[in-house]
Amino acid sequence: MDTNADLEELEAQNTELNEFNAVQGPIAVTSRISVQKLCNVFSQFNDFKKQLIRDIGFGGVLAIKTLPKLNLKFSSCLMEKVNPETREILIEDYRAIMFSSQDVSNVFGIPCGAKKISSYPTELSEACAEFKKFAEDMSDKGVHSLKAAEAILVKHLDAESRTLDIDMFKIASVIFVVGHMLCPSSKNEYTTVDYGGALSTTAEISEHNWAELVVEHLLAAVRKLKSDLHTRHSTIHLLGCHLFLHVWHALAHLLPF
């Protein structure tokens, strides 16, 4: 962004945030989203690991840079302006813009494939079963442990590594990205793996619609936020990838939607 665009976006943020604060009053806002954690781990990858990330369709994540701490109050403000039924966000009193799974794919560089991600359990592949065993040995959170996924990601890996280890790395990569940025949960170092079937065949990971998974989680988070605001919770915990809304809001003030 140029200087004028930066100032325009900052002014828009301040205006909307002041309006939100005037209506909602003093509330505390928390979130487990952590772009910094993601960047810290991925920045350590060698070229071989980076290519594996590209192979599963998540290459765009490699380009994400560490961000200043997100303004969670502004995240709340943006989420409150989302209509989860129409998938629109109100930018100004008279203007709303839609967003889709393709938009999420474009922003983060993740797959928007033809295969729908199902939460129904499937038979575990050898790599998924091995990942499950590794995670359960390491933590009582099992496959939900982001620490377990991280432990696999930081292991040495190169072209001479076993296919099983390479597949486990691919599985751990998706879980790590989803858990820390795309679909963060309310628990520390914990992720809800409701997409296990899409990991079973690592060669097909890029064929699934991961961007739609992000949208669905975000819309569920919006509904929860609206409910929490309605019942006047003193502390609000944000779920979903509200980072996307920050990007979309900024683009709305730069591009002629």
Distance between the termini: 17 Å
Percent range for β-strand residues: 5-15%
Domain count: the total is 1
Secondary structure category: mainly alpha
Low-confidence stretches: none
Q: Give me the Rg, rounded.
A: 19 Å
Q: Number of DSSP helices?
A: 10
**Can you summarize the main beta sheet?**
3 strands, antiparallel
The strand count comes to 5
3D architecture notes:
- The chain has ten helices and five strands.
- Strand 3 and strand 4 (95-98) form a beta hairpin.
- Helices cover 50% and strands 7% of the residues.
- The chain is globular and about 55 Å long.
- It has one domain (3-18, 25-252).
- The relative contact order is 0.20.
- The strands form two sheets. The protein has a three-stranded antiparallel beta sheet. The chain has a two-stranded parallel sheet with strand order 1-5.
- It is mainly alpha-helical and 257 residues long.
Key attributes of the depicted protein:
two-stranded parallel ribbon, mainly alpha, globular, 7% strand, 3-stranded antiparallel β-sheet, 257 residues, single chain
Please write out the topology:
Blueprint: H1 3-24, E1 28-31, H2 35-42, H3 47-55, H4 72-80, E2 82-83, E3 88-92, E4 95-98, H5 101-108, H6 126-138, H7 146-153, H8 163-182, H9 210-230, E5 235-238, H10 242-252
Parallel strand pairs: 1-5
Antiparallel strand pairs: 2-3, 3-4
What is the gist of this entry?
The protein has 257 residues and is mainly α. It contains ten helices and five strands.
